[in-house]
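Practice problem 4.
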């Protein structure tokens, strides 16, 4: 990383390590989760422990850990917190998108049972998914929370444990891309790590997306569906 970027981040901004939660059974089955409070699978717990060991090996100096209040994220954050001696704090803004009646369905089931809604979304309309949130509402709460991180953690490094859709929606914002360009942000694997510098005034520098080196090349489940 260039020294000028490193120094700018230390002096002015906040470095955020965005972590997707470990695997769940619904990830294995490629079911849309949304805000359903699904638990980690055994593999998910193993992934979280592997990530914790990675952060210890990298000697990451972490000042704070924030986590979505959904169980799969909280349990991932607790494992990281124990390893790094940091008590996680809940940040409800980093919940996954509210997808309403889509929750628990596969993509094929969503497309079949909600055909008109699915078609309109694919044409670019920003409808409330399953009667839940629009993309604008979802992304807006993530961005608003990130601005608070800049105010509270200037010059620090923090971890945010969240969800695949949330990481991608936030990275889309950081790149200044529109909702129609969502596909340009790669899918995030379970316990994938993305690193972003946020600077006062809104500038963002992305330095890593979906790093899963701690999993030693193991196949990841749940990559088809983010939410």
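Answer key:
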């Amino acid at each position: 990383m260039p020294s000028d970027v490193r120094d700018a981040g230390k002096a002015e901004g906040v470095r955020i390590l965005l972590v997707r939660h470990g695997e769940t059974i619904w990830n294995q089955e490629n079911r849309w989760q949304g805000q359903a409070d699904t638990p980690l699978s055994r593999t998910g717990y193993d992934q979280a422990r592997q990530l914790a060991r990675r952060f210890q090996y990298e000697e990451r100096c972490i000042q704070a850990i924030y986590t979505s209040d959904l169980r799969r994220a909280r349990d991932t954050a607790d494992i990281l917190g124990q390893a790094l001696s940091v008590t996680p704090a809940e940040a409800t803004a980093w919940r996954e998108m509210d997808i309403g009646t889509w929750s628990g369905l596969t993509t094929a089931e969503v497309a079949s049972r909600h055909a008109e809604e699915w078609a309109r979304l694919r044409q670019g309309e920003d409808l409330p998914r399953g009667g839940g949130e629009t993309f604008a509402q979802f992304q807006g709460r993530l961005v608003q929370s990130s601005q608070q991180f800049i105010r509270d953690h200037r010059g620090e490094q923090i971890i945010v444990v969240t969800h695949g859709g949330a990481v991608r929606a936030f990275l889309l914002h950081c790149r200044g891309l529109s909702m129609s360009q969502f596909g340009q942000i790669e899918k995030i694997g379970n316990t994938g790590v993305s690193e972003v510098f946020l600077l006062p005034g809104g500038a963002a520098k992305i330095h890593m997306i979906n790093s899963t080196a701690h999993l030693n090349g193991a196949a990841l489940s749940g990559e088809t569906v983010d939410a």
